[in-house]
Amino acid sequence: xxxxxxxxxxxxxxxxxxxxxxxxxxxxxxxxxxxxxxxxxxxxxxxxxxxxxxxxxxxxxxxxxxxxxxxxxxxxxxxxxxxxxxxxxxxxxxxxxxxxxxxxxxxxxxxxxxxxxxxxxxxxxxx
Amino acid sequence: xxxxxxxxxxxxxxxxxxxxxxxxxxxxxxxxxxxxxxxxxxxxxxxxxxxxxxxxxxxxxxxxxxxxxxxxxxxxxxxxxxxxxxxxxxxxxxxxxxxxxxxxxxxxxxxxxxxxxxxxxxxxxxxxxxxxxxxxxxxxxxxxxxxxxxxxxxxxxxxxxxxxxxxxxxxxxxxxxxxxxxxxxxxxxxxxxxxxxxxxxxxxxxxxxxxxxxxxxxxxxxxxxxxxxxxxxxxxxxxxxxxxxxxxxxxxxxxxxxxxxxxxxxxxxxxxxxxxxxxxxxxxxxxxxxxxxxxxxxxxxxxxxxxxxxxxxxxxxxxxxxxxxxxxxxxxxxxxxxxxxxxxxxxxxxxxxxxxxxxxxxxxxxxxxxxxxxxxxxxxxxxxxxxxxxx
Lengths: 127, 391
Prior knowledge:
The complex is a heterodimer. Chain A is of the alpha/beta class. Helices cover 45% and strands 19% of the residues of chain A. Chain A has helices spanning 11-23, 34-43, 60-71, 83-87, 96-101, 114-124; strands at residues 3-7, 27-31, 48-52, 77-81, 106-109. Chain A has a 5-stranded parallel beta sheet with strand order 2-1-3-4-5, with helices on both faces. The radius of gyration of chain A is 13 Å and the shape is globular. In chain B, strands 2-3-1-4-5-6 form a 6-stranded mixed beta sheet, with helices on both faces. Chain B is elongated.
């Protein structure tokens, strides 16, 4: 069974994504804070990661993504961000340089539709 | 210091030179501006030239001769009207006829300067225009600032209301699509979260209503003799159920009845918000102490908790609207982010102040100091009329 790591500090978003992913046949590892996420990342027991970009400590998503890629570059990382809906600021990694700086294979803006997330996961896992 | 630009439009070179000379070292003091207001003079010898210069960079003040060879002063005014410039035109007229004055005013002239005039008459007219210009600009900036603050506040409100809607909507779709499965525990958890988020939303709306009522001054204040200790007891009773759930004890420390002239509902709101916070941000098995004292005509109420405390940085933004201290320890604490904004606004009604002492992981003490309203503000509580019908 494919294992998905979801990291988000919004408990409602986390629970909803978890239920949907489980329903779609994935096994879900969840973390609602940096420490818990770090433990899972260190244990290296997942196939794809869905990370919230902006957690309480602002750079948590970035740092986790970097850690994952450093340990195992083959694991796809999907970064979810609420920046646009929360601040009204445009957030998009448009250039190659920005994309190389953010160690993620896909960026999704909140609110994320589940089908969209599923499509990205399947695409990145080449399923 | 501020320099206003004046454009002189007059076909007589001698007149232009005389005005320039008179205004060269002239300064005006306007309270709204730090330092003196000075002037820089530019010249135009015809209405046409004046319009050209104005179209490039409109001056703050225009000294405009009425009688000009080509376009007249009134023609120039007419072309400027409707352009919505901030330029203040002053008409210079040789024979100050009522008719010209009326027409010029209709075209937007701010003032008149009848020829011949002395340098001091010129200066006082320019000074008046300069003051008007600066005060008008100040008022505009304030209005813009108010609009901006209002807009930001509305965006914040919208965002804060959208978050619980998103959460509940998400849960509903999870339930409807059958994704949640049949586990009654999961369903229960989902429903609990929905109820919690909706409750949070209602709290935001109620707090917003309180806040706007206080701010608008529409809230009717009933100032009477209030026993603050009584209010504290009521507030503590209300907070007890949620405190007991986490084994938090609440103590009232008051030496004697503390009586002050106040609006009871306001004192209740102040203490209520502080005590609720002290419970919410406490640790399990923690303690809350409410202390009420009166000293030198001031009432001092302090609420101390044994909770998570605040860092210096968190303390600095504590009283801003919708600011909730977000970190791992506060994640599961619900709140509108308006409680302390309300307390702060209420405290100002009593010419009071609020202080915070805090240490992370040890606890916080919020101290509110209230002064009694002056006697003339106190409306005696309504006495029942002598002939009131008795039941």
